Protein: Heme-degrading monooxygenase HmoA
Amino acid sequence: MYTVFSTFDVPPEKSEEVINIYKNRSRLVDQAEGFVDFLLLQREQRPGELTVQLIFDTKENYLKWARSSEFRRIHELEKNYPDQELAAIIPKVSKFKVVAR
Structure:
């Protein structure tokens, strides 16, 4: 398995707005080959710190997703979000190969 974390900070007063965006996400990734799961994580001590976790069965299938037109479409929508403060956020991305379960 392969997992990708995208961590970003939003102003704490906007964290619920961002959480609701993800609760109503397009779910395009759910249709990607090898997709396993999506999680949105909120750090307890810092509610403005959010992490998206994507889990795929293989790195190759994740890379197919990351190079897909659906992936580009989702990220273009983010750039056009009306709240420019949120649209300008660049996440820190970390990628991991799962080596034990």
Q: What stands out?
A: The domain at 2-97 is CATH 3.30.70.100 (Alpha-Beta Plaits).
